[in-house]
Amino acid sequence: MRTSLSLFCLFLSFAYCQTSDQIRPVPDTPIGYYEGDPLPPKTAYLTFDDGPSDWTSDVLDVLKKENVRATFFVCAAWLPKTNRRENSFKKYRNTLIRMKEEGHIIGNHTFGHRNFEQMSRAKIENQLEENEKLYKKELGEYSGNLTWIRPPFGSPFIRTRSETSKKRVGEALQGKGLVFMWTKEFDSTDSKEWVRGEWYEKGPRIDPENQSFRRKMDRIYNSLVSKTEGQGIVILFHDTHPTTKEVLPFIIEKLKEEGYTFATAEDYTKWRWGKTSEELFEEGID
């Protein structure tokens, strides 16, 4: 009986490893989470791209109230140049420090949110390195390494079928960190449009009672909660949209009702590899 059990466990281990290897878009892509990778059941990973912004502190308020930790992929220069007097890490330094202190994970979303598929390897590396350099400069002792990466637009791992692009970008990302994509069906689509009543900064434009604003909230909510069936999910949000922070409490409440727990990219690393991202990064595992 013990021999049979051992053989069965060995079979499962082999099958898991095979599945894990096959998920990588191409062999040279760094390890991480990609569409189709294993996830623990009834676990929701809330991720937020493009911040920090005027709305990030409100998102943090919601997460704190709900006792949920999330993962934020940050850009130093997301805001339009005409409205950017200083980099976002400097402008929202206290928000980022709060993010760290409250147990959230911060990852690299590049300096200027450019599409990797349209860039040379040198420019890709520069976008990541400049972003982390500014992050460490502005946060100082609070910073740490940005060991997680999310390519802007998910490109080329979401939007293209070009194996050549995936290979070229994957090679550029080697040694820069672990990649954390999202579950394709769980893109909240909150960034698809700016509707009347919302804007990327606080001010008189903002009107959560506007019908367009409310309809967008309903669309985001329904597009996510209608697809949950107990599977593990990585949800893509953007903390640059006020509709996101308004609908977030309702989404969290619904997921909790369905028995979901919440985790971060770092939790995923420990679950899947039994190590922190820092340990994997230092070991040079690709």
Automatic annotation (TrEMBL):
Residues 42-263 form the NodB homology domain. This is Polysaccharide deacetylase family protein. The lineage of its organism: Bacteria, Pseudomonadati, Spirochaetota, Spirochaetia, Leptospirales. GO terms for biological process: carbohydrate metabolic process. SUPFAM superfamilies: Glycoside hydrolase/deacetylase. It holds the Pfam family Polysacc_deac_1. One of its GO terms (molecular function) is hydrolase activity, acting on carbon-nitrogen (but not peptide) bonds.
